[in-house]
Amino acid sequence: MQIGLVGLGKMGGNMRERLRNAGHEVVGYDTNPELSDVKNLVELADRLAAPRAVWVMVPAGSATQRVIDQLASVLKPGDVVIDGGNSRWTDDEKHAEELGKRGIGFVDAGVSGGVWGLEHGYALMVGGEQEHVERLKPVFDALKPEGPYGFVHAGKVGAGHFSKMVHNGIEYAMMQAYAEGWELLEKVDSVDNVREVFRSWQQGTVIRSWLLDLAVNALDEDQHLDKLRGYAEDSGEGRWTVEAAIDNAVPLPAITASLFARFASRQDDSPQMKMIAALRNQFGGHAVEAAKK
């Protein structure tokens, strides 16, 4: 099958290679000419036979909007656009409406797999009309992991990115739990081989997972994580998950706490902890530490 692919970064570049390895013809475009197969989106559209399929793999927000706008002007009725970035599901509804006015289909695809996807495949959560999803099935089959799992047509437009958003919210909470357990183990004097404790959990325990395997990899590289600063960004999906929970009155205490923990990581001298320290001193006479000069 022929497919255009816009955005050839870490994810997009590996996806192009995996698709080509499966025998598909991929025409890639990137703003970096060293990565690109064509000079622009007009040339990309010209290289594809109608009806065309173009997969967009660029950062969510304004970058995706720009590409959607450009594709709307070069594609034709009957073509279909797939957004495989981490777009917000509400943007999907907007993009589907914009492209639909021109007779162009739209599918949203939540993609998980990161830098390991080339070798192991990508988990795909897809939203859109059945006819568009069925038409793209050969591409989805090539990208997903081997076996019966790893792909789902989650529902109508927006369902794929909404599912991926919830997936990432769960990921936040799981990582936070591993991090808290690791810190506690490192803190006590009785445990002197925390890395091997984590390794021992990889088989036979109910908390074994790929995230645990990656944690062990990280500890093998830096046993006490001394080389790292305790700072973690959030890419947006965690916030959107919490916002969706509020909108739907669904309690998400673990995911919400894990998001707030990331916010706390960015404070060298937490204002909240200043107030807590002051209150503890006031009611209990607990000692306080002077601010660093």
TrEMBL record:
It is an enzyme of class 1 (oxidoreductase). InterPro entries: 6-PGluconate_DH-like_C_sf (IPR008927), 6DGDH_YqeC (IPR004849), 6PGD_dom2 (IPR013328), 6PGDH_C (IPR006114), 6PGDH_NADP-bd (IPR006115), 6PGdom_BS (IPR006184), NAD(P)-bd_dom_sf (IPR036291), Pgluconate_DH (IPR006183). Its EC number is 1.1.1.343. SUPFAM superfamilies: 6-phosphogluconate dehydrogenase C-terminal domain-like (SSF48179), NAD(P)-binding Rossmann-fold domains (SSF51735). Residues 160-293 form the 6-phosphogluconate dehydrogenase C-terminal domain. The keyword Oxidoreductase applies. It holds the Pfam family NAD_binding_2. GO terms for molecular function: oxidoreductase activity. The keyword Oxidoreductase applies. Keywords: Gluconate utilization, Oxidoreductase. PROSITE patterns: 6PGD. Belongs to the 6-phosphogluconate dehydrogenase family. This is Phosphogluconate dehydrogenase (NAD(+)-dependent, decarboxylating). It comes from Streptomyces viridiviolaceus.
